[in-house]
């Protein structure tokens, strides 16, 4: 009981600070920073937060989110407890999503300028928050000066892209299931995603050197790393090559070269790759050149387990993932788990709006070792289903959609309860729940980098696993169901953390309330 009172008191203090940001002029571009010295920083959570800048905060009244808006909400992110943010593409681009870059060294003018970005980096670092940015290396925009020049067969940029030759199968299907070749007059070029995104040719040393130069440029600016978009598709172009080991080897060889180039500037840069493969075995090779890859198979399993209220092999999958990645890297806590991102239906929509299932999905995610990622708005239960613009709608800060700072580039949801303002003062809100669990990770190091061992219980509505590191040894238990459950731990333990009141541990029997998470030590 003492622990629960302490956590609620701490959370109240955090949200009191958060509330100050809501009460005043939320569009202020330069928040005060005098109180954010290293001595006041919370322990790390190793949690990352994905931000679509366009939908985040608008500080100049044009309806579009901007970099100054990210700076203005750093105190919110600090109170939430995240250790880093991932910015979706901020380079100039003709699209609203930004994954077709026209200048790899520039800032999208709709988001601000380089001075705004440098200020964001400085303010984030003052708060102990790292910043990684999207690096779209597989392809450029068809409006990039490189590609426009490449349309001339005599241009030096011609060989920066891939063009059809006599005998090329122009009806070939790409690895993403779309047409691979696209016409421009009588010419055909490779574009694995769309014709607006022509693939760069990484067999060309000049392309490799330029991409390394780009990465170094941003690291020298102070960026802490990259989320590398579509990293497996640098060489995986065609559906027929999906399981080709030579293609995988070429991808790994290039990424190893890129990693070496980044190490020359910052050997601690965090580089996480988007690799959409169905198993830990197929993801593991990418851990050699990269810091981590996103765990798509686990995301699906976490959501299914929460929806079905059942441990149907989740614990075994978790153990298998840890063992596989440890064999590759020599250590635990390297995974990058998540629930959903900007390419998938939002978690709350996948769970049909069930708030308890959402909490359990979040509880499982945030008690796993590694560096979990949260998609913006997930912590307040935002919903959204494809097409893509409907899963990238404006973040809701206030009950009113026309309040200062709200982005209006696209219509968002109209439920005022799904807003930061509505939830920040409610100790039982989803936002409060996320904050509490993120801060758990600062209290127990094994939640961040412990070795995971599945813990078998004779109850399919409970999932449990041990986490062990040099300084802490805990048993994490989740009751996925809407009814109380019991388990019998194998040794004398005590309750360290609990998500709900009513947990008891008597005579060796742990009583778990409905939809609850307990950490035993």
From TrEMBL:
Keywords: Carbohydrate metabolism, Glycosidase, Hydrolase, Signal. SUPFAM superfamilies: (Trans)glycosidases, Glycosyl hydrolase domain. Residues 1-28 form the signal peptide. InterPro entries: Alpha_amylase, GH, GH13_cat_dom, Glyco_hydro_b, O16G_dom_2, SusG-like_C. GO terms for molecular function: hydrolase activity. It holds the Pfam family SusG_C. Residues 50-441 form the Glycosyl hydrolase family 13 catalytic domain. Residues 405-424 are annotated as: Disordered. It comes from the Bacteria. Its EC number is 3.2.1.1. It catalyses: Endohydrolysis of (1->4)-alpha-D-glucosidic linkages in polysaccharides containing three or more (1->4)-alpha-linked D-glucose units. Belongs to the glycosyl hydrolase 13 family. This is Alpha-amylase.
